[in-house]
Design goal:
mainly alpha, DNA polymerase, domain 1, hpI Integrase, Chain A, 2 domains, 13 helices, elongated
Length: 343
């Protein structure tokens, strides 16, 4: 029996991803594909045709290339860790030398740079939501409904996109996140959950369904949020979010522009507004706000489908003073002694 064939970087990547499909979510596969794509394209530009050509010097050259491209420390850390995991698989099936994975340098992330602290804070969220609720022309529109759902559930954009009309329960005031073909959840079936909604949010969603939702279908399903073509893509929802979080909706433009003539109102330029925020930043703000509202960490974890460790490290951005004033100070009275101590 002959040994394993020499695999090109592209073929080796595809084999690895196929191997992982049975044990990982589609979102994870897409993330790994994106990270390894950088290495594959770089290797092809360097005329590396076989994985057998890789050595410690080659790996260091790639890391220097990515570092020089200006990526953040967290991005570089993730790319190099994925590269190492990939090479460990290839070493196991003897496509590369056993020692090669250990030659991958996974740079540590400097303290304070594990995640981006930018988020939609409570004051801005209240102002934006209030501006939509008070404007009859914008109340219940697609952008308004999306912003309310993102803020009051803390869900990922993929989860919001997955919602069907049947997943929204107006009378009972909750929505269900279900893992289905074509609209997978981040953690597959483990991401399925029911999330309660305040009555005011249900009123917004009801108005959207009655007045703004297109009667569109998606493979026999009826999406909750729709465009004229059917279920919106994640990119379309991101654009809606960028447009819904522009501060000029409730205050003068902080960048000195006139709203009526601002190019950032166009769908192709909405993400360029320096003050608009992505769905991920709304999620971050929502999780911090839910904790500040007194919801126990475990309840928030279940609502947003994230572990306690992940919430603490990446999403909950309350300051030390906020944690004291809004979360711990109410319990100070529990520390009182029920008798006096003589001086």
């Amino acid at each position: 029996m002959t040994g394993p064939p020499e695999l090109s970087p592209r073929d080796a990547r595809d084999r690895y991803l196929d191997h992982r499909r049975t044990e990982a979510s589609q979102k994870s596969i897409e993330s790994w594909h994106y990270r390894l794509k950088r290495f594959v394209e770089w290797a092809e530009e360097e005329d590396i045709t076989s994985m057998a050509e890789l050595d410690g010097w080659t790996l260091d050259e790639f890391e220097n290339y990515r570092r020089g491209s200006g990526v953040s420390p967290s991005t570089l850390n993730g790319e190099m860790q994925t590269l190492k995991n990939w090479l460990e698989y290839l070493a196991r099936i003897e496509v590369v030398e056993d020692s090669l994975p250990e030659k991958v340098h996974v740079p540590e992330i400097p303290d304070g740079e594990e995640s981006n602290d930018e988020m939609l804070d409570q004051a801005d969220a209240y102002a934006l939501i209030s501006s939509f609720r008070k404007d009859p022309e914008r109340y219940g529109t697609s952008k308004h409904a999306l912003l309310e759902l993102l803020w009051f559930t803390g869900a990922r954009i993929g989860g919001i996109r997955s919602l069907d009309l049947r997943d929204y329960h107006s009378e009972e005031q909750y929505i269900e996140f279900r893992h289905r073909n074509g609209t997978p959840l981040k953690n597959d079936s483990d991401g399925e959950r029911a999330v309660g909604l305040p009555e005011s949010v249900c009123e917004v969603v009801n108005t959207y369904i009655e007045n703004y939702r297109n009667d569109a279908h998606d493979g026999g399903r009826k999406p909750l949020l729709t465009t004229t073509q059917g279920r919106p893509s994640e990119n379309t929802l991101r654009v809606w979010c960028y447009l819904a979080t522009q501060p000029c909706l409730h205050e003068p433009c902080p960048h000195g522009k006139e709203r009526e003539a601002c190019e950032y109102l166009h769908v192709h330029h909405a993400s360029k507004c320096p003050s608009s925020l992505s769905p991920h930043r709304v999620r971050t703000g929502s999780i911090t706000w839910q904790r500040d509202c007194g919801l126990p960490a475990q309840i928030v974890s279940e609502r947003v489908n994230a572990t306690l460790e992940v919430i603490e490290k990446y999403y909950d951005k309350a300051t030390a003073r906020q944690r004291l004033e809004e979360r711990r100070r109410p319990y100070i009275e529990n520390l009182q002694l029920d008798f006096d101590i003589d001086p």
